[in-house]
Amino acid sequence: MFYRPQDGHGLPHNPFNAIVTPRPIGWISTRNAQGQNNLAPYSFFNGVSYTPPQVMFASTSHKSDQGDTKDSVANIRETGVFCVNIVEYAMRDAMNASSEMLPKEVDEFAAAGLTAQACNQIDCARVANAPAALECRMTQVVAIEGENNFVVFGEVIGVHIRDDTLVEGRFDVTSFQPLSRLGYRDYTRVTEVFELARPDD
Predict the structure, then answer these.
(1) pTM above 0.90, yes or no
(2) What does the alpha-carbon distance between residue 66 and residue 75 come to, in Å, rounded to a whole number?
(3) CA-CA distance, 5 to 7, in Å (whole number)?
(4) 12, 16, 77, 188: which one has the fewest Cβ atoms less than 10 Å from its Cβ?
(5) 104, 71 in Cβ contact below 8 A?
(6) Which of 184, 158, 190 lies closest to 92 in space, CA to CA?
(7) Cβ proximity of 98 and 27 under 8 Å
């Protein structure tokens, strides 16, 4: 089949998210200017450069108590910092619980039964015992085509790695099985890896 998104797809569910998969999940923790913690997962997330290390995530909807966006972007606009927590398979239920659209004054760490731990370089909480966490300084918030669509870019200025994920000097994703987002309500986890050498290596 072929379809133009502007005309609709004619299927029971939108296939776009299922086509662009798997997508890593950025579990974004923020804190507003009043010190209120927030935690939410975003599957439009990725690393975008090595030097300096930078990441991005996109927010694509809004809440009535935050105007044109959701809590994460609103908080980052106020403070200029955020933390990306890596989601392991064992934390899948807590991650899912933190995705609930709650009033801005609710702390998702508490609502999801998670322990908040202080970051090192920024005034923000991170998920205690996450496999890894990236402390970020926001560099840009870019409005893109469409209502309530914002892309947040950040420079990674601090990296936390849980000791048991380091195997022979390498960050071993099979030791914690990172969660990835598929289409619809589907997820997957990384359980095995393989290597491919580039032709010019």
Answers:
(1) yes
(2) 10
(3) 5
(4) 12
(5) yes
(6) 190
(7) yes
What distance in Å separates the CA atoms of residue 74 and residue 201, rounded to the nearest whole number?
Answer: 44
174: helix, coil or strand? helix
> Binning pLDDT at 50, 70 and 90, where does residue 201 land?
confident
Cα separation of the two ends of the chain = 39
3-state DSSP percent of the chain in helix, strand and coil, to 5: 15, 35, 45
Q: Which domains does the chain have, with CATH numbers?
A: 23-189 (2.30.110.10)
Closest Cα to residue 180, out of 172, 188, 171? 188
Which of 54, 30, 36, 69 is closest to 147 using CA atoms?
A: 69
How many angstroms separate the Cα of 192 from the Cα of each of 59, 112, 176? 30, 29, 11
